[in-house]
């Protein structure tokens, strides 16, 4: 039957059916978008909670190295609040000495391509430097890298213990070698100098 042959009632019936079909389609589309938005919001909240409550220092930067967020442990470790450094380039010397800036930029480039672990030196707000273990990973949204999350772990104690064990091992090795006390003394003095100030340290030879 051609449209011109249809009665007014039949046309109204078809229009109502079409309106109902389109309405359900729009409603389903809105529902799907609402569910997607809710899932995204939940994911963002979970991410934020994990980020803020992490026991290690974390910084979140965008793909251009600008600081977007930090957690309380970052503030505790480096001395900076988010208000002080948000929007600043993480590789501009804020948390590294001038001589380490180039290294920082290279690490960021590598982290944009994949997971990265590295040991290096970083600087606090007060200027003091300390050894850190860095762990970085890219943040991807829709398969596009949008930034990096980096973890900083202070390894001062670990380094100190490693150095102590090395010194004790070297002294023990020298003590058990066939050398005289006069030869052993400078070795002990040198090794202890790696962990303490030996300026006024003397060993009495008897």
Automatic annotation (TrEMBL):
<feature type="domain" description="PAS">
    <location>
        <begin position="43"/>
        <end position="89"/>
    </location>
</feature>
<protein>
    <recommendedName>
        <fullName>PAS domain-containing protein</fullName>
    </recommendedName>
</protein>
<dbReference type="InterPro" id="IPR052155">
    <property type="entry name" value="Biofilm_reg_signaling"/>
</dbReference>
<dbReference type="InterPro" id="IPR000014">
    <property type="entry name" value="PAS"/>
</dbReference>
<keyword id="KW-0175">Coiled coil</keyword>
<dbReference type="InterPro" id="IPR035965">
    <property type="entry name" value="PAS-like_dom_sf"/>
</dbReference>
<dbReference type="Pfam" id="PF13426">
    <property type="entry name" value="PAS_9"/>
</dbReference>
<feature type="coiled-coil region">
    <location>
        <begin position="1"/>
        <end position="28"/>
    </location>
</feature>
């Amino acid at each position: 039957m051609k449209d011109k042959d249809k009665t007014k009632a039949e046309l109204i019936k078809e229009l109502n059916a079409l309106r109902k079909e389109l309405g359900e389609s729009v409603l389903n589309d809105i529902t799907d978008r609402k569910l997607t938005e809710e899932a995204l919001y939940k994911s963002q909240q979970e991410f934020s909670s994990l980020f803020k409550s992490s026991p290690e220092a974390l910084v979140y930067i965008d793909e251009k190295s600008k600081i977007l967020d930090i957690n309380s442990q970052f503030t505790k470790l480096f001395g900076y609040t988010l208000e002080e450094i948000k929007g600043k380039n993480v590789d501009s010397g804020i948390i590294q000495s001038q001589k380490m800036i180039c290294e920082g930029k290279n690490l960021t480039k590598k982290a944009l391509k994949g997971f990265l672990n590295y040991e290096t030196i970083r600087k606090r707000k007060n200027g003091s430097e300390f050894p850190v273990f860095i762990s970085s990973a890219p943040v991807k949204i829709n398969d596009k890298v949008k930034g990096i999350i980096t973890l900083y772990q202070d390894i001062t104690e670990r380094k100190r213990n490693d150095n102590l064990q090395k010194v004790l091992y070297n002294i023990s090795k020298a003590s058990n070698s066939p050398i005289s006390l006069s030869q052993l003394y400078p070795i002990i003095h040198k090794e202890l100098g790696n962990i303490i100030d030996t300026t006024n340290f003397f060993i009495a030879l008897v």
